[in-house]
Design brief:
globular; seven-stranded mixed beta sheet; two-stranded antiparallel ribbon; alpha/beta
Length: 208
């Protein structure tokens, strides 16, 4: 299913970068102003925009394990509100999902991401064409596997000419995998590899 996309143009690819530490984004409790100059926000889906709900259909609380379980998610409204305060022009969801790639699972996943992007675009008062989800499915590693930046590049390519008028210092990544205790740092490294700023989702509430 390479090239399979959502109704908003996001590409599903079936099928990673050097680590450039950014001391400005260490895990601290300092309050900082929101980066309201940012015109593009890249963000992870799981644990940033949504979180799974433990239920009979999704007993592990992990997204996508069952046909019905993929719908057992809830929005993380405080994060949505923080993003709205930044007032971006574009929001691109960039996510890796280790779920089945059979046609039925893909259709379930597309319906869920279509629903999330539609609601998010309305919440942020931006057009659906400016709020897209880009997903890499499966375990095979390629340029779309984080911390590689293929999904970010694909997102920018979906808007003709966007790189001509929006600079990298006007972009930011909001991620969940930030290198904290017991967690990966692939979201943080992805932002570093792409040359943009990074905000750990658990610190976004320290911004004002």
């Amino acid at each position: 299913p390479g090239g399979w996309g959502t109704s908003f143009g996001g590409t599903i690819s079936n099928q990673g970068g050097s680590y450039n530490p950014n001391p400005g984004y260490q895990m601290t409790g300092d309050r900082r102003p929101l980066p309201r100059h940012c015109k593009i926000i890249f963000c992870e889906l799981d644990d940033v925009l949504i979180q799974p709900v433990v239920s009979e259909a999704c007993p592990s609380g992990k997204l996508g394990l069952g046909r019905r379980g993929i719908y057992d998610v809830q929005e993380k409204w405080p994060v949505w509100e923080a993003i709205r305060c930044i007032n971006p022009e574009f929001v691109f969801i960039v996510t890796n999902q280790d779920i089945s790639t059979d046609q039925e699972s893909l259709e379930h996943y597309q319906r869920m991401t279509d629903s999330i992007t539609e609601r998010l675009s309305k919440y942020l008062y931006i057009s659906p064409e400016r709020c897209k989800c880009f997903t890499k499915l499966g375990r095979n590693r390629n340029e779309f596997t984080k911390p590689n930046t293929g999904l970010m590049t694909k997102a920018l390519q979906s808007i003709p000419g966007i790189s001509e008028y929006i600079r990298r210092d006007e972009m930011v990544m909001i991620g969940a995998q930030s290198g904290g205790p017991g967690q990966s740092d692939i979201d943080y490294r992805m932002a570093c590899n792409f040359g943009i700023d990074y905000i750990p989702v658990d610190q976004i509430f320290l911004y004002y």
